[in-house]
């Protein structure tokens, strides 16, 4: 997610700080909503959910930690806490309640932006991995076959089980979770989690060749697991 696509909600009762942070982020391409207190924060989230919240701890009315507790009952939106407190216990409590990071006051705007970027990247990666795990279950068609991911079994077009090794299943599962993405050998080695393989081990080509003989109509002209010359393979 780049800055132009990211909506940041800045919640702080200090008008000057709130506006300073908002202006700085807007200049860098973020869309910003300002909230003077927790009540406004919750209303703003209902109207237009943010991609990340910058939340002050010490605010009149509902403080930042209480606001965070309320948010976490219904949202996983990333939250960076602002705190003037040097007490480690405050930071620990916030992290345990679901804060993603902390920035101390007075705020260094460059540090804040760096932490926003890092938090957004982490959150996007977690969401992507979660979606992949949700997708990679049940049965996935592989050419003339279908792979049962839950049972770790491959079935032919006639319904009969086709014998596959543990590593062949691992490779098929990696392809299933990366449909339409080109994977090089390093990525396949890493995601298949076979520690016995050496980096750049060309035996992966042999293993994919064996898989093709089981799933492709014509293994010599593969349509399911295709070679992308000079790069790697793609499950299409």
Automatic annotation (TrEMBL):
PTM-bearing positions, type 4-aspartylphosphate: 56
A Pfam family this chain is assigned to: Response_reg
Family matches, as PANTHER family: DNA-BINDING DUAL TRANSCRIPTIONAL REGULATOR OMPR, REGULATOR OF RPOS
Protein name, per record: Response regulator
Chain residues forming the annotated DNA-binding region: 137-236
Keywords: DNA-binding, Phosphoprotein, Transcription, Transcription regulation, Two-component regulatory system
Cited InterPro entries: CheY-like_superfamily, OmpR/PhoB-type_DNA-bd, Sig_transdc_resp-reg_C-effctor, Sig_transdc_resp-reg_receiver, WalR-like, WH-like_DNA-bd_sf
Hydrolase keyword on record: no
Highest taxon in the source lineage: Bacteria
Domain OmpR/PhoB-type: 137-236
Residues of the Response regulatory domain: 7-120
GO molecular function, one term: transcription cis-regulatory region binding
Transmembrane segments: none
Biological process (GO), any one: regulation of DNA-templated transcription
GO CC field: cytosol; protein-DNA complex
PROSITE patterns: OMPR_PHOB (PS51755), RESPONSE_REGULATORY (PS50110)
Keyword Transcription regulation carried by entry: yes
């Amino acid at each position: 997610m780049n800055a132009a696509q990211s909506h940041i909600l800045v919640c702080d009762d200090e008008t000057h700080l709130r506006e300073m942070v908002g202006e700085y982020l807007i200049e860098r391409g973020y869309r910003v909503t300002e909230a003077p207190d927790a009540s406004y924060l919750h209303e703003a989230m209902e109207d237009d959910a943010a991609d990340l919240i910058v939340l002050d701890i010490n605010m009149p009315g509902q403080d930042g930690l209480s606001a965070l507790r309320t948010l976490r009952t219904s949202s996983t939106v990333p939250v960076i806490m602002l705190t003037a407190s040097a007490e480690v216990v405050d930071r620990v409590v916030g992290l345990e309640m679901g804060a993603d990071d902390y920035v101390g006051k007075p705020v260094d705007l460059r540090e804040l932006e760096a932490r926003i970027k890092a938090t957004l990247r982490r959150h996007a990666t977690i969401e992507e991995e979660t979606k992949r795990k949700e997708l990679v279950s049940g049965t996935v068609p592989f050419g003339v076959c279908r792979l049962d991911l839950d049972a770790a079994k491959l079935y032919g077009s006639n319904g009969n089980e086709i014998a596959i090794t543990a590593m062949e299943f691992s490779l098929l599962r990696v392809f299933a979770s990366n449909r339409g993405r080109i994977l090089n050998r390093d990525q396949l080695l890493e995601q298949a989690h076979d520690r016995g393989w050496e980096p750049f081990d060309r035996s992966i080509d042999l293993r994919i060749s064996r898989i093709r003989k089981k799933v492709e109509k014509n293994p010599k002209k593969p349509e399911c697991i295709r070679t992308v010359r000079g790069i790697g393979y793609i499950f299409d």
